[in-house]
Amino acid sequence: MNQSIRSAWLAAVAMFALIFGAISYVQVVGADELNDNPWNQRAVLADYCKDRGAIIVAGKPIAESVAGDETCSFQRKYTQPELYAGITGYFSRTYGASGLEQELRDELAGSSDQLFLDRISQVFLGRQAKGASVELTLDPQIQKLAYDLIPDGQRGSIVVTNPKTGAILAMVSKPSYDPNLIATHDVAKEQASFEQLNKIPGINLNQSVSGPTGALLAPGSVFKLIDTAAALNSGKYNKDSELPNPASLPLPGSSASLPNYAGGNCYTRTTADFAFALEQSCNTPFARIALDLGQEAIADQARKFGFGQDFGDQLKLQSAVSVFPPDLDDAALAQSAVGQRDVKATPLQIAMMTAAIANGGVQMKPNLIKNVRAPDLRVISEPEPEVLRNSTSPAIARQITEWMTGVVSKGIGGGAAVPGVEVAGKTGTAQLGDSGLNNSWFTGFAPANDPQVAVTIVIEGVDVTTGAQLTSPNAKKIFEAVLNK
């Protein structure tokens, strides 16, 4: 009998400890994680009918709370929704939140620590607490121009930054969507719209990241800027180095070969200096450099430009992590050196790599937030430009900039040339298997001697001619628009 009582008592104690531990985890240890989960319906419903703060661009709201109906005092409304959907995200009764609506939930809902006194004052006045407003660094004219430069029905992304500060001036992608369709109080319409939007190729609302911060794509020849920085940093190469430039490079341990780029004039020389190899985007010299330096040298330089890092904390917007793969054999290393094989990068990553070169080798933290204001318009947060890392030396950055100007003035990036302005750039063409289609890239900055703007464009799944038409010439239009403001 005593043994039975003892066993029952031990079981009761164990169950109590388990329940107490679970409650403690939910309320203390895991509270932040659970509240931050966009699928936590309780957290969403607690905020859903509140007067959330506005998301603002150039003084005008692109997301704000407006009068609701008898079921809810307020409803979220998005202005120019497709233009900004990749940044604002959505705020939905059923599906939670994404984008800035999720990442800045505490500020927008008025529940952040910085708004504690505001909440207390509203309680004493018998009013519902209001959320803070968030103003972005985006330039609405550049944002609209960039969005319109990607044809409807085409997948692509554009990122425009100030390389000296890290401020994002424009960040767009297509296809886009209208967040108003899933911010409605009509649950049936909300669910139908969510399901319909998810059927559109290139839109996946179940993903936390997409577009410029989430699209992991083969970077193609824009990756050669990393090879170049690694080569110069190694001390084995300098501005006068002559590089082997065969028409094709047999891949070690393989019966395959890596061909040179056929779209330029690489075939005219069997050796090349860095200037010519970058101007014509020759493949074999950079593959040979990677084989000479080894995988770790290329991987280390890629890390110094941000590969392997999540930029979400800096950007206040979730971001996929760009990848330079480990454990490569020599054949894979040669292919990876020209931005193919399993190398994957987001448009944001390539934009930050380019901005670091423009800024003398110093990579600034990417920033979308101009300021955060309390309901009484008091500024409670105003991020200052902040250095993220030194990606390369000033001397190497200057040398690469000089060669990048040749890509535009004498090479295959001529479509980005702006009269009276020295432009630095690099093109990229990443083949998509045997489809005959490519991801077409341009990345660059201007003016080369005093960079004010950096532009990265990627157009997905196009032939070489279409890619050339939609990258370098469109970069020119953005350079001109920013520099003429």
Automatic annotation (TrEMBL):
It comes from the Bacteria. Residues 52-134 form the Penicillin binding protein A dimerisation domain. One of its GO terms (cellular component) is plasma membrane. The lineage of its organism: Bacteria, Bacillati, Actinomycetota, Actinomycetes, Micrococcales. InterPro entries: Beta-lactam/transpept, Beta-lactam/transpept-like, PBPA_dimer, PCN-bd_Tpept. The keyword Transferase applies. Transmembrane segments: none annotated. It holds the Pfam family PBP_dimer_2. This is Peptidoglycan glycosyltransferase. SUPFAM superfamilies: beta-lactamase/transpeptidase-like (SSF56601). GO terms for molecular function: penicillin binding; peptidoglycan L,D-transpeptidase activity; transferase activity. One of its GO terms (biological process) is cell wall organization. Residues 156-481 form the Penicillin-binding protein transpeptidase domain. Signal peptide: none annotated.
